[in-house]
Amino acid sequence: MSGAGPTTAPERLAVGFARVLRGAGLDVPVGSVLTFVEALGAVGVTRRDAVYWAGRTTLVRRPEDVDLYERAFAAFWEGAPGAGPPAPPEVQRIALLLDAEDEPAGGGEQPDDGGEPPDATLVVRFSGHEVLRHKDFAACSRSELEEAQRLMADLRLAGALRRSRRLRPSRRLRGRPDVRRTVRGALRAGGEPVRRAHLEPDRRPRRLVLLLDVSGSMEPYARALLRFVHAAVVGRTRVEAFTLGTRLTRITRQLASRDPDLALASAGRAVADWSGGTRLGEGLRAFNDQWGVRGTARGAVVVVLSDGWDRGAPEVLAEQMQRLRRVAHRVVWVNPLKATPGYAPLARGMAAALPYVDEFVEGHSVASLEQLAEVIAR
Amino acid sequence: MPFPASTPDGVAAALSAHDYLADEGLATAIFLALSLHRPLLLEGEAGVGKTEVAKVLSRWTGGELVRLQCYEGIDVAQAVYEWDYARQLLHLRAAEATGDAAREGADRLEDELYSERFLVRRPLLRAIAHGEGPPPVLLIDEVDRADDEFEAFLLEILSDYAVTVPELGTFRALEPPVVVITSNRTRDVHDALKRRCLYHWVEHPDFEREVAIVRVRAPEVGDALARQVAAAVETMRGLGLYKPPGVAETIDWAQALATLGRSQLDEGSVAVTLGTVLKYREDQARVHDHGLPDLVRAAMARGA
Question: Where are the alpha helices (DSSP H) in chain B?
Fold first, then answer.
């Protein structure tokens, strides 16, 4: 540490560079900049590579940010052509609107179910809410959808439980002896272990992984379901959320905000392929490779929210579903089209995936999502 | 100071003297971790040599390697310290039988029970309250497997290198241990923990480095074979496998071939030893589909 005040060259350079990185969309806390200055003190500023690695070790914390860092580095330290000081913020792609549309999008490459709203005869029920709970999202008007989203915020997702390695005090007189409590008790009784305490395995919620299809065919449902996914992410721990479309996007971080509007807008920005094509198999492959098989899906309840329309080869989807099934505790497939009268899983993708699915459920209305919450907790 | 290296190059040289070949990025990260006394967080695919970094640091610095393997549900009793309750209980009974309990009174007896004598030191406490000699190398392996609560707790320990045992007081490190944390990235490590650490993403080595690694780690493997194996592995990594081979697999494979007495790659030996590099049936099928003759031919050409 130079201790020569804020005007020393490395400090000014570090602060300037940090500003460029922030402009490029990297999160650079002040503490890291200080560490960077220290690091520069240790490696010197005379060699390009030393400075490069000192910065990368102290300022970058995720492999996804390496590209960004590299470009910003070139721009700042070498004045690379084409990139002015604030490197182009590549992450901030087009903000995609999240507002629901009043009419369901009809034109697609596949038949939209657009079916009869099943509430025509139900209007005499107790309240508007009760009707709304059963109304197909695709048939909801904009204001109804907003109301439905509020209902979804109240959904409580309990997790399926599994035995943990952690132990908890047991009331019963069997299981592993709890020597700690026995000794404490013995001390009180003058050294006599009168009461023997026991331990039993604790129960912890299983990890929940949600994979939401955001391709064109899911348009009438994706936004409503995203609200459900958000409720799941903020409502409990150990939840991971991804979107599948033409590619895989992890949205857990974006959805972590408690404010649903903020969270959904932020997730909307992160997902670059809203309403694009569907490559379910490829998306699942990416998930399996990068996350699932490495541990995220192991022993987890994995929920795929998709209508099963896939333009890729069905063998790819089948193979990836098989891989997923082998590591997951349970695979739940939520298909909003399933509620349509006369629906049969004939879409090639759906037919390919079905043999590897433990539960096949509807997901077109608030009520069906409540049911889904029960399935997840089972 | 046990670290004579004063530049990243010096670190790379010292590590290579202990059979670990680090590239410039990793050498810089290690150099900075040592000179700034910061924990080093290593992420990367399985098998690129993250854990090995801690081992080689321990060989180099002479500090004891203290390893904490993380898993779901790990808690303070398994990571920091625990009381040896069984022995405490015995002590209690003995005190009672000899009449000491009555003489000494409950308070004295309790003090005795919660003394160093009955303290079981787990890895974190061992690394912090070490005795004379070079500071230990603390390896916190696969931190992504532990849960959030444990990470938060780790953060506390890593920020002041001190552990408080309520009955005994605070243990503080005379000299902080060298800390290496690894993660396979099955989930995000908490930002707060990342901020405390220096960060390095460990990549697969490039071709020449991988050849050198095989030569160093498996000296019985001839130069030609090492080059061909490294070349074949490089091809495999480009085939979109479920689990692309890591450095550890490259070394295993080269050793297996050398053990079979091979000094060159050939189709037959590749077929029978494929299981040392590829651990998924589907991956083996994919390599077979790609064609073993092609693989061998390309490896011979690249390795020449």
Answer: 8-17, 24-36, 50-61, 76-79, 85-97, 100-113, 123-128, 148-160, 191-196, 207-217, 223-237, 247-259, 267-273, 281-290, 292-303
